[in-house]
Amino acid sequence: MTSKLGFLGAVTMAGLAISLTLSACGPQTGVEIADAGSAAPGVTSTATGEPTMSATVAPAGPEPLLSPAPSAVPAPQAPAPVEPVVPVEPVAPSLQSFTFPDGHISFSYPAGWSVRTERGPGRDGPPWQPVEAIVSDGTGNDLVRVSSGADGIGCAGGPVHRTVLDKADAPGMRQADGTTPWFGFKVENVGGEDWYSMSLSRPSNFDEGEVNSGCGLLVMENGGAMVGAIFNPPPHLAFPSREAAKAWMGSEQYSQLKALLLSVSYS
Questions:
Q1: Which of these, 212, 120, 147, 217, lies nearest to 175 by C-alpha position?
Q2: Fewer CB within a 10 Å sphere, N or C end of the chain?
Q3: Which residues have CB under 8 Å from 218's CB, separation 6+?
Q4: Is 191 helix (H, G, I), strand (E, B) or coil?
Q5: Is there a contact between 260 and 228 (Cβ–Cβ < 8 Å)?
Q6: What is the pLDDT of residue 251?
Q7: pTM for the complete prediction?
Q8: Distance CA 228, CA 116 (A)
């Protein structure tokens, strides 16, 4: 009896030892990680082929977002003091003045220009003193002619088609009858040619259209006077076209000549 139990116990222990040995030497249980799109796999015993447990390995999530450290904000700066804006006064052009020998007619002209005098048209003798002042620019070009103190002169005109390009009142030259002339820049077409003039003349000489060319003589207390820019020295015309004449009106030279003629005054 005892020997039978001993034999069975030995057999049992021997079987247990064999089982442990096989367990240690056989394949181990494998763990498979499912693809992201497949169902969660189980853990399968390679020894029996039967599922014994299931496990799901979660994919790694995104790193937690960290709030950036606040950047240093510079302290507000005090605004720079604003310097007061001092307006720049326009510099008036430097002018010179000329007065005729009898002291009646005078005018202003730009510094750097010059004036020479000649005997003017008309009779000479008391009380008449016909003198003509010719104004030249810095390069010696004769630009303006002013006659004063003339007697026994006149002028006549013929039919023209007149267009006035610019005009203004010239109150400094009051005539013997109390009327004041106008300054004007005009073009008169005669026989298909344009002739230009810039002068002081009676207001009627600035009527437009089909008119008489008129006369630019001013009747002053000391005799006849004529004031105008020197244009159209024969056989040349002043401008190649009316467009060129209008463009010249925007030039410094035009402004200087206009200012000179408007400055002519009688006392």
A1: 217
A2: N
A3: 173, 175, 181, 200, 201, 202, 224, 225, 226, 227
A4: coil
A5: no
A6: 97
A7: 0.65
A8: 15
